[in-house]
UniProtKB/TrEMBL annotation:
Pfam name, any one: ArdcN
GO molecular function list: single-stranded DNA binding
Organism phylogeny: Bacteria, Pseudomonadati, Pseudomonadota, Alphaproteobacteria, Acetobacterales
Protein known as: Antirestriction protein ArdC
N-terminal domain sequence ranges: 8-124
Annotated Polyvalent protein metallopeptidase domain residues: 150-273
């Protein structure tokens, strides 16, 4: 029974992501262009901890579909604990928590086998609640671009990545371990340069000496598509924390991502989890490091 439920979770979430991609909607970008919600990672309103992994995509998707004005979320009990309540008739959003259990048959063994699984629970956007403290429902004022840029510059420096400016292509060279990006003046909008840099820093985190991800070697293979998916989401997660509007750098990869997701129902969970880990790694040397509410990794 538990195995069937796990399969349903992975398949249902993957099917939703596939539908969105086939409709031309990229789940880690769309909320910013079609809603009045501010740019941010989704956070638990009671703990101020950011959600992570696949939960970011699930919650961003709900913000986009339902037009919420905030990225703050609460469980039913948390709303009551804050003196408020969820409005009658409101439907929550399902998020996931990754956990493991040890089969009873192996409980006494020297190295018991642990089986990963996903727990479901429901959260509600603050817009779906009432009678909450004003501080909890007040929107976060967006930063002007002149204040975002110094934060982005500082974060780039704090990572310690070897970033070389020049040429007309952006790439990460894994063998030599450096990033190459064109000069800022070659971009129509300055902020686009930072989106590009954080995409390449996303690749940089995958080096063996860091998070040790497997890089694909050619366009079109599944490992290559998966790594590009991780880098795209890493950039989106980092940009959201910096209040930079995420965009799709490589729309031509969408076909490869669809092929990957259709072949492996756990791929989006794995990629989102890896992207959250990469974003955490990038922020690990920074004073802006976000606290994380949960990680729904591939189970």
């Amino acid at each position: 029974m538990a195995r069937t439920e796990r399969t349903d979770i992975h398949q249902s979430v993957t099917d939703r992501i596939i539908r969105e991609l086939e409709a031309g909607t990229v789940p880690w970008v769309c909320p910013w262009s079609r809603t009045k919600c501010g740019i941010a990672l989704p956070r638990n309103a009671a703990t101020d901890r950011a959600y992570s992994g696949i939960n970011i995509l699930m919650l961003w998707g709900s913000v986009e579909m339902q037009g919420f004005c905030t990225q703050k979320w609460l469980t039913f009990r948390q709303a009551h604990a804050q003196g408020g309540n969820v409005r009658k008739g409101e439907k929550g959003t399902t998020v996931f928590y990754a956990d493991r259990f040890t089969p009873k048959s192996e409980a006494g063994s020297d190295e018991p086998r642990q089986i990963p699984f996903l727990k479901r629970f429901t959260v509600f956007n603050v817009d779906q609640c009432e009678n909450l403290p004003e501080s909890m429902v007040a929107p976060t004022a967006p930063l002007p671009e002149r204040e975002i840029v110094p934060h982005a510059e500082a974060l780039m420096t704090e990572t310690g990545a070897d970033i070389r400016v020049g040429g007309d292509r952006a790439f990460y060279a894994p063998d030599a371990d450096f990033i190459r990006v064109p000069p800022q003046q070659s971009y129509f909008n300055q902020i686009d340069w930072y989106r590009t840099v954080f995409h390449e820093i996303g690749h940089w985190t995958g080096a063996e000496s860091r998070l040790s991800r497997t890089f694909g070697r050619r366009f079109g293979d599944h490992a290559y598509a998966a790594e590009e998916l991780v880098a795209e989401m890493t950039s989106a997660f980092v940009c959201a924390e910096l209040q930079i509007e995420p965009t799709v750098r490589h729309a031509d990869y969408i076909g490869n991502w669809l092929e990957l997701l259709k072949a492996d129902k756990r791929a989006i969970f794995t990629a989102a989890s890896a992207a959250s880990a990469a974003a955490q790694y990038i922020f690990s040397s920074s004073t802006r490091q976000p606290s994380v509410e949960d990680v729904a990794s591939a189970a």
